[in-house]
Specification:
Blueprint: E1 4-8, H1 13-24, E2 28-32, H2 42-50, E3 55-57, H3 64-73, E4 77-82, H4 89-94, H5 96-116, E5 121-127, H6 151-168, E6 174-180, E7 182-184, H7 203-212, E8 218-221, E9 233-234, E10 236-238, H8 239-254, E11 262-267, E12 273-274, H9 275-286, E13 292-295, H10 310-316, H11 324-341
Parallel strand pairs: 1-2, 1-4, 2-3, 4-5, 5-6, 6-11, 7-10, 8-13
Antiparallel strand pairs: 9-12
The structure holds nicotinamide-adenine-dinucleotide and UDP-4-deoxy-4-formamido-beta-L-arabinopyranose.
Length: 342
């Protein structure tokens, strides 16, 4: 019998790619999303890729009554993969209460439902942001959690603590927090991908929008960092590789393979790449020239961060596999595809 997985935020960027991987692995996917940062057409993309349309319920997870109704409608849910959140770092500084309310209340409601409706497993979308400016590189799961430099980052730290406290007194519950480094790229079909609203904050969507002519040039934020070429270094991971790690985490929970009721894994490639390396690789992969100018450092940015992935590779039996060029080409194909539609 198919196992039911609830994917919150499943019409969003990472949630939609994970829904595809789950459907392809034979899971029955139920998506909840209020579409605050995604669109209903994403369901068409998932259906075109997999041949199956996931169940979809549109509501705000801050509404606990709606979650009750959902759990009654789908009594066989075995796992919650919790992506739904507001995620713009800068915006979270402007409207912190919206971020704390949305991200914390939705998570608390879901944990309450796990207890009330006997849903034993959760996979939570955490972030490398919890490590702040790390003392040592690469960053292992044992690296200390540092004071968050934004309300957004703080919501991730607080939710991880709430999950742990809840699990400590509910021995039938298990959870895995996955700390993502920098997810980029799109599904190779170019039928789903990232849909940033307005001016993109992240590097790769800005690069693809520059290539297609929506932006005049890429602003490279700082070339005086303590890195080989002076530009910031990050660990960029393909979104499909990242999604596959969720499938591994879910199987680990369902197969009762966890070493403790609460586990944490880094999701990255283990390799740091600079802004200029991304630009050059994009040009090589796509044949598109990227115009760029050097700007001052972006406030809050750190010089270099990348993951130690040995623990997640070993324990999850998972590894990021898709090459950087293939990843950047997928981001470019997605950009071309959405502009064709609009
Ligand atoms: P996204 O904005 O594309 O997807 C999140 C989805 O959640 C959206 O579709 C949005 O409409 C929905 N949502 C938000 N609040 C909701 C609510 N209260 N009720 C119902 N639906 C709600 O973001 P993403 O990039 O796919 O990120 C998914 C998760 O991964 C988030 O938790 C994010 O914080 C985390 N994360 C993302 C990155 C990244 O760079 N993209 C890095 C680290 C962690
Ligand atoms: C990468 C590099 C920039 C844009 C953010 C969040 C983090 C996580 C992932 C959710 C940096 C440089 C960027 C541009 C540039 N999200 N850059 N020009 O800052 O590592 O992480 O997204 O959890 O919490 O902070 O990613 O893609 O914004 O930046 O030069 O137009 O590209 O300075 O060195 P970041 P990013």
């Amino acid at each position: 019998m198919k196992k039911f997985v609830l994917v919150t935020g499943g019409t969003g960027y990472i949630g939609s790619h994970t829904a595809v991987e789950l459907i392809e692995e034979g899971f029955e996917v139920v998506i909840v999303d209020n579409l605050v940062n995604s669109s209903i057409e994403v369901l068409d993309g998932i259906e075109q890729i997999t041949g199956i349309r996931p169940h979809f319920e549109k509501f705000d997870l801050c509404d606990s009554i709606k979650i009750d109704e959902l759990c009654k409608k789908y009594p066989r849910l075995e796992v919650i993969v919790h992506f739904a959140a507001l995620k713009a770092v800068g915006e979270s500084v402007e409207i912190p209460l919206d971020y704390y309310y949305n991200n914390l209340v939705s998570s608390i409601n879901l944990l309450r439902a796990m207890i009330d409706y006997n849903i034993p497993n959760m996979v939570f979308s955490s972030s490398a942001a919890v490590y702040g400016l790390p003392d040592k590189l690469p960053v292992t799961e044992d690296s200390p959690v540092k004071k968050a430099n934004s309300p957004y980052g703080n919501t991730k730290q607080i939710i991880e603590e709430i999950i742990l406290d809840t699990i400590n007194v509910n021995s039938n519950l298990e959870a895995i927090s996955l700390r993502y480094f920098n997810p980029i790229g799109a599904h190779k079909s170019a039928l789903i991908g990232e849909l940033p609203l307005g001016v993109p904050l992240n590097l790769v969507p800005y690069v693809t929008q520059t290539a297609i002519g929506i932006r005049d040039h890429l602003r490279v934020f700082g070339n005086d960092y303590n890195t080989p070429d002076g530009t910031g270094v990050r660990d960029y991971i393909n979104v499909v590789d990242l999604s596959r790690a969720h499938v591994s985490a879910i199987k680990r929970l369902l197969d009762k393979k966890c070493k403790s009721n609460y586990e944490v894994f880094n999701l990255g490639t283990g390799k740091g790449l600079s802004v200029m390396e991304i630009v050059k690789s994009f040009e090589k992969a796509t044949g598109q020239k990227i115009k760029y100018k050097i700007y001052p450092r972006r406030p809050g940015d750190i010089d270099i961060v990348y993951a130690d992935t040995s623990y997640s590779n070993r324990e999850l039996g998972w590894k990021a596999e898709i090459s950087l060029e293939e990843t950047l080409l997928s981001a470019w194909n997605w950009e071309k595809n959405i502009r064709k539609k609009s």
